[in-house]
Amino acid sequence: MNSMMFDHSRKFDIVCSGRIAVDFNPVDLNQPLEDCTTFKKYLGGSPANIAVGMARFGKKVGFIGKVSKDQMGTFVTKFFEKEGIDTTQVCQAGQGEFIGLTYTEILSPTESSILMNRNFAADLSLTTDDVSEDYIKQAKIFLISGTALAASPSREAMLLGLRYAKKNNVKVAFVLDYRGYTWKSKEEVSLYYSFIAENSDILIGSRSEFDLMEATLFNDKNDKKSAQFWLDKGNQIVVITHGKDGSTAYTQNGESFSIKPFPVKSLKGFGGGDGYTSAFLYGLTEGWDIIDCLEFGSASAAMLIASHACSQDMPDTTAVKAFIKKEKEEYGEMIARV
Amino acid sequence: MNSMMFDHSRKFDIVCSGRIAVDFNPVDLNQPLEDCTTFKKYLGGSPANIAVGMARFGKKVGFIGKVSKDQMGTFVTKFFEKEGIDTTQVCQAGQGEFIGLTYTEILSPTESSILMNRNFAADLSLTTDDVSEDYIKQAKIFLISGTALAASPSREAMLLGLRYAKKNNVKVAFVLDYRGYTWKSKEEVSLYYSFIAENSDILIGSRSEFDLMEATLFNDKNDKKSAQFWLDKGNQIVVITHGKDGSTAYTQNGESFSIKPFPVKSLKGFGGGDGYTSAFLYGLTEGWDIIDCLEFGSASAAMLIASHACSQDMPDTTAVKAFIKKEKEEYGEMIARV
Amino acid sequence: MNSMMFDHSRKFDIVCSGRIAVDFNPVDLNQPLEDCTTFKKYLGGSPANIAVGMARFGKKVGFIGKVSKDQMGTFVTKFFEKEGIDTTQVCQAGQGEFIGLTYTEILSPTESSILMNRNFAADLSLTTDDVSEDYIKQAKIFLISGTALAASPSREAMLLGLRYAKKNNVKVAFVLDYRGYTWKSKEEVSLYYSFIAENSDILIGSRSEFDLMEATLFNDKNDKKSAQFWLDKGNQIVVITHGKDGSTAYTQNGESFSIKPFPVKSLKGFGGGDGYTSAFLYGLTEGWDIIDCLEFGSASAAMLIASHACSQDMPDTTAVKAFIKKEKEEYGEMIARV
Amino acid sequence: MNSMMFDHSRKFDIVCSGRIAVDFNPVDLNQPLEDCTTFKKYLGGSPANIAVGMARFGKKVGFIGKVSKDQMGTFVTKFFEKEGIDTTQVCQAGQGEFIGLTYTEILSPTESSILMNRNFAADLSLTTDDVSEDYIKQAKIFLISGTALAASPSREAMLLGLRYAKKNNVKVAFVLDYRGYTWKSKEEVSLYYSFIAENSDILIGSRSEFDLMEATLFNDKNDKKSAQFWLDKGNQIVVITHGKDGSTAYTQNGESFSIKPFPVKSLKGFGGGDGYTSAFLYGLTEGWDIIDCLEFGSASAAMLIASHACSQDMPDTTAVKAFIKKEKEEYGEMIARV
User: Fold this and answer.
1) What residues of B are in contact with residue A159 (Cβ under 8 Å)?
2) Staple partner for B246: which of A45, B260, C113, D225, CB 3.0–4.6 Å?
3) CATH number, residue C107
């Protein structure tokens, strides 16, 4: 059991918001991107991946976002619909914006990078007019992804979504998801990130993302100080991740829980995060103990970095449970637990 | 005596920030602007006028702002210097921005309007790089004017200024000063205004400006509800103005104080607000009772709407006191007090 | 008699196009602009001044341009109407553009400069949709001013106007009128200027403007070479001005005619050019000898640099003739002729 | 033999300019783009494809263009280098521009469409500073592609390139290549297209592209009228294409030559044009009779619409000759000739 209390009368377990993108992942592995000749096309974007993950776990999911008015927009919308995600609030950009594009470069199982084309991106053209209070108030959780704060008018759409969530007792999950595109300065990142985090209930990010967020707030940063600061501001759970060194969740009652990665052979060095987040949030909404949420998250992450896609390869509950069972049988009960 | 506690070791009584403009006020009175042939040029812009007002009252004043790199920028900077205002943080725009221009139309003593040219305005090009924590922390009060939130990057510069003020126990005065230029939506106004007001100590605006700020927060707006809401958020004084119907200051201890305008013959229907604010803040920093601050503010406002300029005609302490004395002798002690 | 043949069945003697601005000229003379306190407001902009000049000489004048949707736009439109200029094609900008503003600095009778605010200027927002072939074909002369080429979409509106003029045997007068605002590079100036000049019939500019226009065309520039180049391209008259050293008109038949300034006491060092051009074009449309056109132009220029305004002080035919008569009586018949 | 005279002392047979793009062509054929899952990445963009085609025929080729400063830019530059194309004038965009992207949709062998992402495209950021007169004057032919005129500053870079070509007796080939992206109005297309075409030597486009170009020039358009108009302006060869109905070349001496497509089974409905143009220009530079140039062009086009890529599948001389021989053996000598 965890301490989060959700309103079970709500229509949606989660309403995610922000970036829906298209990923082009090379089939030719372990080569510089410039030399790759063949690509698979997938739905992408951190909050979109999380939405798919939650839907695969059987949760009721809605999404507030903007996609391009073309075949790429149709592709991602149809993909959402196939997954059972509500797309009534996924609107189309009307000024020639293009859907955000991500080209992944997989140099080796441990060296990956990402090339994004976010010029005049459809997701960043979301406006305050596209955000409905009636929709948000039907959610247990409203998820904000940091990238949606990177430019106006999407930035203000997110601030309005936050306001509607707070007014209607919707829990706010803030996933830092920092991408260095379209931001004008580091100070700007810190200001907007910290503004959301001062008002969120669940806060998830990497150590380096917390550093960015806290740049205008204090020096001598470390996990304990960060966790305490954001818990003091009202968050109920603060999760700080450290890549292959694992992650720790801090809670209001002063407890903390740590998890390590499962020892899988990775195909690519990214994509685990969205699996982790969706599985962790799934556990939370199921009322699990925090440590079980973390283990479920770590397992989903492990499964995804061994897969080619992010969204498309999101596992369902049965698959994650089977994976954990298999790993424990092979490596011992405490394989991921610290 | 009032309840505001200022740190008297600080170098500046107030550091204002935001818009410095140039006003062109017609000499030909009571005519449509299109028919006016001759104009006087004055320094303008609400926070700039307040800075001049405070300086004339003998206060130590600094300013954070951006002006055009031309004779107009030189004019306002020299004007500030002549008034004894510190201009070390008044920088010059480098991308061809022009100083904000205001053309006033005085159709009659009670009908005035304002035509602004704020296209690519120098003041809105202030960036986070132009805001110094070392400077702000030398102030007793940091004043933010709502117009500076109307567009990026000035918007983020103000958010950073607010952060630095809070970190260094500088009191924040937020003057709503709404101008409908460059804002993208009403929701945007409400979001950014309320974000500053949740963090300010002194909040001053008209009833219609409070309505704008509260648009995404609650319905059934009225002064008592507004005052209580913002006092609950931590403001120590909330002043809501109603033009010729007077204004009221609400304080943390549940008291309220009202003032009426002095019965002067106005030349123009604007410009009183900045006189009011500077005189009210002057009284506060002097430790006066709130009602005396209000009376001083109302007197300064009355003197300014009978004058041609805003900045240039700001009165000094002696003049305001003489004005009040004369008015009271003529109309009675309670002439402005409710 | 001159060699230009005009179609006298046309409704308009001239249709000017491009910039309509508002000038603020200081009343306080011989001071830095920053120290000037009082300004007179006038209609300005080179092609607008020329339109007024032609109208004062009794010519039928039309104008294609865009002004701001505010009192400044109303001012200039009403001014045109009062002068008898057709304003059916003077439209209003709808996206918040402001009319171009010019602040003149008169340091001494010989030292003047100009500060312009052309950020998001209304005149540069003229589009191809605002240009009517039916209107242009009613003109004897279509006048293009170089400043209108400084940015899109005004640039393309001018190219379309040129096309319509050529299709309908309307003579094209190209007044170089270079202003260093909004142009992206010197090459750009040369390319667009030379494109218009290759298609014009009457070409008027200063030596330095010809240098700019010819920058991508040839080296070793001089008046004779310039004149021959542009006459070879089809121009019938090429006028190159040299400020106080006078100006020369070159014609298709190999002749050239020179004129000097009249020896007046100037008030300001600018504004003569538009008087010169309008008076010269007036003479041309009247069928005068080129040297008489030049003398009339030089006289009008002399009268204007001794006046405070450009547009408002444009002389009528009687006044110019009286001025010439007086000058000749005082200084001799050949006072301006070379 | 044809009438074009080239200066054989020049270093480059052709210098192409403008768009270099990346094509993503689906491997899953005959499906809506939204349903395609796998894509091949190719160098694309009409002038880039023509450059590759000319290089494969053994010609010396240079290119003036701008690519993104990332792996996509590296990919196309390396591809050019591998083909022996000079890339000293292929520069990198420095403001976050992305290379133009093309997604092809192949619904059936006869139904294809193209989805482009040209937001803030690298190729359109080419400036006048990127265009070298010294480089252009080393070419026999300077090729301009219409898409490079679609926006500033690339537009002005092309106008400058044209000027340098004319100054140095470089033949100008203008390939209309109209794409409806970034153009502001149809009039704009007509104005800039016709300005280049008035100065070109070889003019190649489809009937609908000629219609666009001539929109502001005359009505009642047809091939003969178009050809005569542009030949009168100085073009030596005008080629007007009609897709599967073939194409016709018109020459200065009043002759015309027509060709039909070869009867191949197409894989996709596009990509033939660039093969056609490169092969036709190849024939011209070899001094072939016009009809032989056309046949060579038609053969190359036929080979390309049966291939998956544009650039990568460009044939060499031997292959085209073999294709023609085979076709003639199968269908008769006059299979493509009219």
Assistant:
1) 191, 195
2) B260
3) 3.40.1190.20
